[in-house]
């Protein structure tokens, strides 16, 4: 199994704004005072377009789908939370915590990918768990080490343990389960998505291990990464708050590896960390300030990796 892909799905926003339904447990979201919703959306679109341009310029195959005005989906720019694509032609659909995010799941996106020559064999649908109040938000909640068949998951209101184990059984992944916390108003609160504190590349892992308060769990996670030969690059909680954990390794022209992140994430890294990362992949960063502030997500959240076979 490959860990990285050249193909990415991205959703261009049409009514992006801070989603009040996700702000209850996403402590990264902020209200941008004095900005009209139309201005916020226009800025997000500019950031989105510039980001896509940078990816395509290095040869990443980006499928851009425009969001629709109805229904209202302020977070549609983060498709990796509702869908994941797998090398055997399987597609997984995930149960989402916020009711208005459930409308992001659009069947016609699968049709469009098939038109582009991607092959879909099976759809594994976990969304009925929403009715019982259980959630697992895609590759936001799950960090997949595809090559070593391991899945990492920081449990939270958006990542249910039983659902995670069900996913691992369905897709043949060994589960690595832990809890990760961040300090909010001097209280330790669960981090809403695993992919804000951790990134898995082919040969490295970026992780804010300080977030794993339980020492045994922390050791267990780090041991799992070392066991698979990953170079571990530790980041601080302050760097994580600048989305330095929210990165994704992708492939460009001639299979060249790029580590994609926001400008804020890039600027938060030390020269030593940058040197460590650049041994593995070239850094590609783009300014996502509005998207990060209002959406509480960054570069990794915006990209749903497509591993499907092609005709």
Automatic annotation (TrEMBL):
Repeat is among the record's keywords: no
Keywords tagged on the record: Transferase
Gene3D superfamilies, per the entry: L-arginine/glycine Amidinotransferase, Chain A
Residues passing through the membrane, by range: none
GO molecular function: transferase activity
Pfam families, alphabetized: DDAH_eukar (PF19420)
The protein's name: Amidinotransferase
């Amino acid at each position: 199994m490959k860990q990285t892909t050249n193909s990415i799905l991205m959703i261009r926003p049409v009514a992006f704004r801070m989603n009040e339904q996700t702000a209850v447990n996403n402590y990264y979201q902020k209200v941008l005072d004095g900005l009209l919703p139309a201005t916020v959306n226009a800025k997000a679109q500019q950031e989105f377009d510039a980001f896509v341009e940078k990816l395509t310029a290095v040869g990443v195959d980006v499928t851009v789908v425009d969001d629709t005005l109805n229904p209202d989906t302020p977070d549609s720019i983060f498709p990796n939370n509702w869908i994941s694509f797998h090398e055997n032609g399987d597609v997984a659909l995930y149960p989402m915590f916020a009711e208005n995010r459930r409308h992001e799941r659009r069947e016609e996106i699968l049709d469009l990918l098939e038109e582009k020559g991607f092959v879909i064999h099976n759809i594994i649908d976990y969304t009925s768990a929403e009715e019982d109040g259980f959630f697992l938000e895609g590759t936001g909640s799950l960090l997949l080490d595809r090559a070593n068949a391991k899945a990492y998951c920081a449990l939270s209101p958006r990542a249910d343990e039983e659902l995670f184990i069900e996913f691992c059984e369905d897709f043949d992944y060994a589960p690595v389960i832990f809890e990760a916390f961040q300090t909010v108003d001097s209280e330790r609160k669960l981090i809403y998505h695993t992919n804000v504190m951790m990134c898995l590349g082919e040969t490295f892992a970026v992780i804010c291990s300080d977030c794993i308060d339980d020492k045994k769990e922390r050791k267990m996670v780090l041991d799992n990464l070392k066991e698979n030969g990953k170079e571990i690059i530790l980041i601080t909680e302050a760097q994580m708050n600048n989305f330095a954990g929210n990165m994704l390794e992708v492939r460009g022209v001639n299979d060249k590896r790029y580590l994609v992140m926001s400008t804020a994430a890039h600027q938060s890294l030390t020269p030593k960390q940058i040197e460590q990362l650049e041994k593995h992949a070239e850094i590609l960063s783009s300014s996502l300030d509005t998207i990060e502030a209002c959406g509480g997500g960054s570069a990794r959240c915006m990209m749903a990796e497509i591993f499907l076979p092609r005709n």
